[in-house]
Fold:
Amino acid sequence: MLTKVVGPIVAGAVLAGVGLFGLVSSQTAPPATNPASQEIITYGDR
Amino acid sequence: MDPRARSGRFVPAALDLWVAVLAALLLWPLLSSAGHPLARDLVFTPHQPFRLAWLGLGDTPARAVPLDALVALADLVVGGDVLARVTLVGVLVLAGGAAHRLLQGAHPVARAAAAGFAVWNPFVVERLALGQWALLSAYAACFAVVAAAVRLRRVSDEEGGTRVRAAVVLLLPSALASVTPTGAVVAGALGVVVASTRGTRRLAVAVAAVVQLPWLVPALLGAAGATGDPAAVDAFAARAERPGGALWSLLGLGGVWDAGSVPPSRSGVLGHVGSVLVVAVLGFGWPRLRRLLPEAAPRLLVVAGVGLGLAVAATVPAGADLVRRLVEGVPGAGLVRDGQKWLLPGVVLVVLSFGAVVDGLLRAARERSPGLVATMGTVAVLLPLVVLPDATRVVWPTVRPVDYPDDFARVAQVVDGTDGSMASLPWAPYRVFPWGSPLAVYDPASRWFDVDVVMSDRLSVGPVTLGGESGRSAAVGTALARAGRPGGAVAAGDELRRLGVRWLLVQADSSAHPALPAGYVARLRGAHLELYESADPVVLQPDPGALRVATVVSVDALVAALVLAALVLTTRHRFSRRRGLLAGMLPRTQRGS
Structure:
């Protein structure tokens, strides 16, 4: 019961949930600023 | 056909397919759109011209030697757009493919898990987001270096010819890793440490030495020996992505210096989960890994430990002081300033350990609870994606290709093949193009135009602007700054002509239009680029020197000849055995099991 039903259900739910979170969050977040308006172009930021 | 032989071919092909799927997902914008990738350090142009500077004969340290020379040569055959796709996909496929081939004794699902993790892990994702594909090329090649070094070690008691052949095989992945100095150092260390026995030490050292030559010789002969700004050590030190310090982030295979290259999930619970998993994988996977790779595992652990030490060094006060003194006082020591990249051999170790853990778990489950095997296998294979679900959020903006405006081709028509130098303005090494990616990108001028291009080499990291390493670039920058002061335009123009600056390239769509020196007339005014030429002759700069050029070119030609000879010998060996290249590198005991 544990290995044939509960395990796959839990694993599937975790995989689907995190996968959807990643997919949605990667597509919906806007940039915090518009870098094209910056006067100083930085290589990166810590 | 023998079912075992069929299975022996099917499994690697299926694993390669899984790796290719992950690589395609990570690089999807690049594969689904036309154009050239142009963001962060990822700069491809239609045809990169060949210049002696690409061999380390310029006035800046040899950080991208011989990478740019190889790209320029490859551009003779294919355009930059094709090259970008082939190299980026190829690097990721090589990493995953070489990883699962190293674990041939493991369960196929464990190999799939390791192969996927080799492609989809924080180190690869963060460096890809920075556009540093050359470092990833070194990372991918290091899996093959380990395999080839094991093979060399195993023939240490055999006759000289056999050992030399094994050393030749080791030269190939070592050379691939050596497209940048960092890769050469890591691959050389891995090869020597893993392969060395009494009978093979000299051969392993010789291979390691050969692959250092393309960057070491110009560094010893020229400006590449310049010292760096010690402030760069703090700017490029490994960074804590979440509470727990930099070491905790490094243990999670992240910790790159740039916050913008880090997926948001790394700052939260999943980041901690990742670090815990890596520590657990190293601990629980060690016994199984020692059985799968008895010669390589302990030696890889040593190199990985040294790498982790280097990565951590700049994050602790005493270590940071030492690295600052090195960068300030030792020519060429700027190579060590980016701390997190030294995690590279550690990532190789963790990937292999992950495969070993999964292999051990699956074997245990098969004996005690067969029903759990499929679930465990699925979870293991998908775990890298689950722990890092937003990898594409930082990678896709970097690899999304753009179309260069026609202005670039028009400028090229004017300046290509001319003498004198071109200064690229605004005077900063990075740009944001309104027609391109919203991310800052390294100025593509030097890779577009067949003329000597002088650029600023003063990097801005957050509010800190670091000192440059090129004396000529500093002099040109000082003259350009003078042009902006009242009454300074004439003196600036004279000074630039004395420094050999014939052309001024101005990004016209930049938010800040720089003040121009006197005596330069417009040759082209486009919506995106403007080109000015000195009205008077300029003082041409001296060549690097015939002896210096001859020495560097001869050494590079010798290394290229050795690598090509190794390629021919290995390919012939491969066909004669009807085995794959990587399978040929593996010890016989690990093949087809």
Observations:
- Chain A has one helix and no strands.
- The helical segments of chain A are 2-28.
- Chain A has a mean pLDDT of 70.
- The longest helix of chain A spans residues 2-28.
